[in-house]
Structure formats: structure tokens, C-alpha cells
Write a structure and sequence with these properties.
three-stranded antiparallel β-sheet, disordered N terminus, disordered C terminus
């Protein structure tokens, strides 16, 4: 993905949240997700108060989110749309996201043609080493249950597989490619211990295919606001829960992780997620 596309991802990811009005009805195949869900825009506060607010968005304006995915037909037009989630909620995240996939597919297929709507769905929940399992599932060579086994879901992801099924089944039905986006645990464990220098050069190149874009991301002035809003509060939450002695990959520490190490770990994960999106 281009640096511009990455900036678009980040802007959308930080600006939108969805909450269910009639969550149970979301199982239906409907053409207008805005009719069943309430949308809010997050208005950030970059002052010392760090006191963001919410602004409700009219259903028609919410549908305008889909318009940005139409593109202009010149190559990879449409960029990307990041959808956040509550991992343990089927109704307010995964069913809604599945319907967004369906609606974006419908719009893009009408405009660009093709069986898959000239689109793909990236998954943070699957590590890049298991891409072939995703391909085989979409091609209907294996079942979703077999895909779960091949991506080592139970060992590498702690949330319910069934909650994600609406997204997987929708992509399988519409022939929309699934793209593994998460860094391999084996590589992340090396970075947790010694930072990027601890990762062999050939593995760095696997993840950071665009060094210039990576450098641009790392120097983004909005990173400071992100740290204040998200990382600092996340560190405080982890500390209050008493879970700062375990790294993302499960390594046990003798004492609580320092904020600097926590920050480095989060930023390295975020950097991986951004840079491994295929061009």
C-alpha cells in the first residue's frame, strides 16, 4: 500500500466507531447497514485535556463511507477502509463488518465488474505464514473449520472463531480474497527481545517492503497524539490488570514491563501491520 493509502487507513480507523441499535436483526442480509446501527464520529482533542467527544452521524452520512471505496477505476482506486472491532462481540462488530464487505462488493462489482468486486479483505487475526490456508478457503478447497486448524487459530488467537465466521463466509461466498496481515509470532518474539536489529535482514524485508513509507510513518507528528490517547491509557490499563509481565507472544518477565518497552512493542506491531499490506 502507498504511504497515502496508509494515512487514509489511519484516519478512518481513528474516526469511526459503530454501536448496535438492533443487533439481533443484523443476521439478515440487508442492503443498508446504517438502518440497523447507530454511527458516531469521534472528535479528537489534541489539547492537554485529551478529552474527545462523540457526534452522532445521520444514516445517509454513514452510507457515504461506502462511497470512498468506489475509486476512480485507475488501478487500485478506492484505497482502503479500516474497521475496528470488539473481538468478543459478534453482533456489534463482526456481523456489521460482514455486511460492509457485502455492500462494498456490490458497489465495486457494479462499477468495475469481476467476480470478487476488485477488492480484498485484510485480516490482522491471521499471520502471514498461513496465507495459503486463506486462499484455499476462499477457493472452496477447504472448509472454514479446516482453515481454522491450518492457521492454528486456537494457539495464536484467543478470541472465538465463530464470531468471525460471518466475515469469512461472506468473503467465501463472494470470492473476495482474504489477506493475512499479522506478523508471525516467531518473528515478533525476536523483536520483543531485541527490537528490529534482532530480526534477520531477510525477515525485515518480508515485512518492510517500503522503507521510505515506513520512515514516513515513524516520523508522523500525529504519533504523539496517538501515544497520549491510546498507548499511555492502554499501558495504565494493563498495569491495573497486572498483566505487564507477559509479552504479546507469551514471554514471562521478572518484573512489570517498562512503558518504554511497552511503547516499543506496540509501535513495532503497528509498523508491521501497516507495512506488510501488499501493494
Amino acid at each position: 500500500a502507498s504511504a497515502g493509502a496508509r494515512r487514509s487507513f489511519a484516519g478512518l480507523a481513528s474516526s469511526w466507531e459503530w454501536a448496535p441499535d438492533v443487533a439481533a436483526a443484523a443476521v439478515a442480509d440487508f442492503a443498508d447497514p446504517a438502518s440497523l446501527f447507530t454511527s458516531y464520529r469521534i472528535l479528537p482533542d489534541a489539547s492537554a485535556k485529551l478529552d474527545p467527544s462523540l457526534e452522532r452521524i445521520a444514516p445517509l452520512d454513514q452510507n457515504n463511507i461506502l462511497v470512498i471505496t468506489d475509486g476512480d477505476g485507475s488501478g487500485g482506486g478506492g484505497g482502503a477502509l479500516w474497521l475496528g472491532e470488539h473481538d468478543n462481540s459478534a453482533n456489534d462488530c463482526h456481523l456489521l463488518r460482514a455486511d460492509f464487505v457485502r455492500n462494498i462488493h456490490r458497489r465495486r462489482q457494479a462499477k468495475f465488474g469481476g467476480r470478487n468486486g476488485n477488492m480484498a479483505v485484510g485480516l490482522e487475526i491471521v499471520q502471514v505464514q498461513f496465507q495459503q490456508a486463506l486462499d484455499d478457503c476462499v477457493l472452496k478447497k477447504i472448509s472454514a473449520e479446516e482453515m481454522k486448524t491450518r492457521v492454528q487459530w486456537d494457539e495464536r488467537w484467543s478470541w472465538s472463531f465463530e464470531n468471525y465466521l460471518p466475515v469469512f463466509e461472506t468473503c467465501r461466498e463472494l470470492n473476495v480474497p482474504l489477506v493475512a496481515l499479522n506478523v508471525d509470532s516467531e518473528d515478533l518474539s525476536l523483536v520483543e527481545i531485541g527490537g528490529f536489529p534482532n530480526l534477520p535482514q531477510e525477515r525485515i524485508q518480508k515485512y518492510i517492503s517500503d522503507p521510505a513509507g515506513f520512515a514516513q510513518f515513524a516520523s508522523n507528528p500525529y504519533k504523539t497524539i496517538y501515544v497520549d490517547y491510546v498507548i499511555s491509557s492502554s499501558y495504565d490499563l494493563h498495569q491495573s490488570m497486572g498483566i505487564l509481565r507477559t509479552t504479546i507472544t507469551g514471554q514471562q518477565l521478572e518484573q512489570d514491563m517498562s512503558f518504554s518497552r511497552f511503547f516499543r512493542q506496540v509501535m513495532q506491531m503497528l509498523s508491521f501491520h501497516i507495512t506488510i499490506v501488499p501493494p
